[in-house]
Amino acid sequence: MKALKAQDVEHALRNSRGARVDADIPAKFQRGDRVLTRNMHPAGHTRLPRYARARHGTIAHDYGVFIFPDSHAAGEGPHPQHLYSVRFAASELWGPQAAGQDGIYLDLWDDYLDAVPDAAQ
Amino acid sequence: MNGAHDLGGMHGFGPIEREVDEPVFHAEWERRCFAITVAAGFLGRWNIDMSRYARERMEPGEYLRSSYYEHWLHGLQILLVEQGLLTEDEIAARMAELAAERGG
Predict the structure, then answer these.
(1) How buried is A34 (Cβ within 10 angstroms: 0-12 exposed, 13-18 middle, 19+ buried)?
(2) A12 inside domain
């Protein structure tokens, strides 16, 4: 079994692998695209919160390609894909109890999102 | 999973208490818990997303009654047992041993 010696800790921490993946994987969406989050309730790990499922949002930023936590947590591989900042109008998530013009930004992966057809926007 | 960790939008927990000059750790055991978790991660037997999923699987009532680093400790125990590095019995035996050393 690998053991981390005290003198190796700093090097190990500084060189630990991040979640960003250097791979040329196409993005499904671009900034400004309208998206609909999936209605999903997996028994495993996911970073799509319950309150943001089956909701409409807008792509605010594309961070690039990252490990997909859902498959990674299940030991099913990194399944790298684009990660976005998605803006939701507060009223879309919280209805009439939402404060005016507030927006909520969530970091969401391609596999959580579907395109909204032009006619539905 | 739809666990107790997914708190967004829930009511009834009261206001968030903001501490002035909040310390990174509120007790020495939290510092140790953090260090042991990070060190055990370098065994290479799990990744950060598996760690998060282990914490999420804490029994929901227990999750809500316990603190942040208690979630970490619970998650680490799950991973150590699932990966066959320790058994539940070994953890229980060591806890009993330490309790006896400290006079119960």
Answers:
(1) middle
(2) no
